[in-house]
Every structure is written in structure tokens, then in C-alpha cells.
Amino acid sequence: MKITDYPTFNKEWNKKETEKKTKKMLKEIGELQYKMYAHGKYSMIVVLQGTDASGKDGLTKGLLRYCNPVGFEVYSFKKPTDLEYSHDFLWRVHKVCPANGVMQVFIRSHYEDILVPTVGKYIPADIIEKRYETINTFEKMLEDHGTKVVKFFLNVSKEAQKQRLMERIEMKEKHWKHKDGDWDTREKFDEYLEVYQQVLTRCNDVPWHVAPADKNWQKLYAVAEVVLRTLKGLDLQWPPLVTEKFKQ
User: Fold this and answer.
1) End-to-end CA distance of the chain
2) CATH for 15-232, among 3.40.50.300, 3.30.1380.10, 3.10.20.880, 1.10.287.110?
């Protein structure tokens, strides 16, 4: 299925009802996240990918609203440093993957090392080509060792993106988010979507989920639903009492 076939906004969703359902799910996520931390057998990576201004930061804040800070981490991937460039492209990713019990949110991820160099054309195509299967192997390895990888493409329209980028210019409290380079990247919006199509098709051994991102309340609902379903599927248990003093 093509990215362009997925909605960026669902007209049939009722905002009030959806927000009510979302709040309930977020509370359940918080409870299960803490139980996963106590259980200490599984971990989870929530991968958030999307074009500029698709709302990755705000989504992270909403998703973790009821989670316990002792059991979650957030890592935002930027342009690789010189040290990171001197290693294989997954080195910087693997070293920040979560320990057992931890829910980790990746704001952007290893997929940037396909997206950006493909559009920018500064890495040979044959090297990028190999990265698709390398990523599939990497994600399978994580899952084989108890780390659930839950991947989301935040599907924002070009019109909604422009509105959000303009807000960063017009609203004082959002000035800090503005980067001139985001407008240069916007000119390549369609090129990025073409590469995302390849990513979603070829790196789907661990499946992608496409979330409508024009409205924040819809995006949060769509992501929370999948995260909650995944946590429930782990069959989490509270650990038994371990003691020598109090025999049962």
C-alpha cells in the first residue's frame, strides 16, 4: 500500500470521544510500562519517523504522560558526529538501545541513515542499498533478545507541515524550533516520501504503522492504540517475592 493511500486526517473520528479513549489507553500504558520495568524481561523501542513538523516531540510527551520516569528513556537522533561517522551506521543506535524493562522512544532513528543520504546523494547508492537488509537483521536481532520494536510513520500532509513551520516563525514560544534548513528540506518533501515508501516496503519484517498526523489528537490515539496492544501482548507479570526472612 502506498503512503499516499493512507489518510493524514480521519474525518469520521469524533474528537471528544477519541480523546476520552486516548486518555484511558495512556493510563493503561503507564501501568503496563511500570509492570514491564518491574518484570525486567522485556524492553520496547518506539520508533517515531516522519517529515519535519510531523509532531514527534509532542507525541512523545503525550504518549509518556502517565509513565514512570524510572522505566523510560527518550533519545533524539541528530546529524551524526565525527565519532559516529567513524563507526558503522548502526553503532550509535545500538549503544542507546534499552536495557531489559525499559521503554525507549527514538525520535528519528537508524532510518535517517537511509533517508537523508539517499535524498542528499552523498553516500553511494550501493552502500545505501545494503542498509535495508542490515536494518532488517538488526531489528530481528533486537526482537529475538526480548526488545519489541514498534515503528511509526507519522503521516502529515504538505499543507499541515507548512502551517506548523509558519507557527515557528510567527509564535514567540516556538521560535526555538525554527531552522532555516527545514524550509530547504520541505522543497524535497515528495522525494522524502518516495524514500519513505521504499523504507516502509523493504524494512517491514518488523511491521510499520502509519499514523495520521495532521491532527495531534488523532496521531496520539493511533500510536497509543498500537503501543498498548503491544504491551498487552507481552504477558507481563509482577515478579514473585524473593526473601529469606519472610517465608510464605
Assistant:
1) 56
2) 3.40.50.300
